[in-house]
Specification:
The strands form 3 sheets. Strands 2-4-5-9-8 form a 5-stranded mixed sheet. The protein has a two-stranded antiparallel ribbon with strand order 1-3. It has a two-stranded antiparallel ribbon with strand order 6-7. The chain has 2 domains: about 70 residues; about 150 residues, Heat Shock Protein 90, CATH 3.30.565. The termini are far apart. The protein has 6 helices and 9 strands, in the order ααβαββαββααββββ. With about 230 residues, it is an alpha+beta fold.
């Protein structure tokens, strides 16, 4: 039977169309999140019984927004359209900015977050990529922790190690002993497709220095005995 393959240009055009559509959806979702945050504030002031439902809606909207952002980044990186920008940054200031972005959801869920990072710590990394990976890790941990999170940054064996630790149920053995990069289409501990983990692995791999690359691992334990997301940058 004769096979009719689609022209290569057509597949590229379709990929570009998907990327533009994702970008448009992300912009609309950003406006929706802004309106939702304002509605939540008003509901909290009036002690509305709808506050819990609104809080869950905010979590899901932000999770979807993160997924769309990761899809766009993966598309751009895969097509060599993303300008990786490795610059020196004050680590604590970047982490404080990420915590601030997640503060409304942390407060709404009554989750205590401990930030452990020296004030004078600096490192070279792409700020936007790192923020995307850590926002995803925090977003997932907020959903699965009991009531405590810990964000830690320190130098270990010549690398910057950033850990997101929770006091939830921990990661399953299948993920602890498997390949994180291969888990793009399965459901695991966090109840997602694995897109965020795949994106974070890609972020780690894009950071190279003197023949050494970044890495991502997950483990159980840490200060709270739960799941630990561990990103290392050279």
């Amino acid at each position: 039977m004769e096979q009719h393959n689609k022209p290569e240009t057509e597949s590229f055009a379709f990929a570009d169309f998907l990327a533009l559509s994702v970008h448009d959806m992300k912009n609309s979702l950003g406006m929706l999140i802004g309106a939702l945050e304002q509605t939540i504030k008003e509901a909290q002031v009036s002690a509305s019984p709808l506050s819990p439902q609104l809080g869950q809606m905010e979590y899901e909207a932000k999770r979807l927004n993160n997924n769309l952002l990761q899809l766009l980044c993966i598309y751009k990186i895969s097509n060599r359209l993303y300008p990786v920008d490795i610059q020196e940054h004050p680590v604590r200031a970047v982490l404080e900015e990420i915590v601030m972005q997640n503060r409304p959801l942390l407060d709404f869920r009554n989750i205590r977050l401990e930030l452990d990072c020296q004030n004078d710590s600096v490192w070279y990394f792409d700020k936007e990529l790192l923020s995307g990976a850590l926002n995803n890790a925090l977003n997932n941990s907020i959903q699965h922790t009991a009531d405590q999170l810990r964000l830690v940054a320190r130098e270990v064996d010549g690398q910057l190690e950033i850990r997101v630790e929770d006091n939830g149920g921990g990661y399953p053995a299948s993920l602890l002993h498997g390949s994180l990069a291969a888990n793009k289409s399965i459901n695991y501990y966090r109840g997602s497709t694995g897109l965020g983990m795949y994106f974070s692995v890609m972020v780690a791999n894009l950071h190279q220095n003197n023949g050494h690359g970044g890495s991502l691992t997950v483990e159980n334990g840490g200060a709270f005995g739960g799941g630990c997301f561990v990103l290392r940058l050279p």
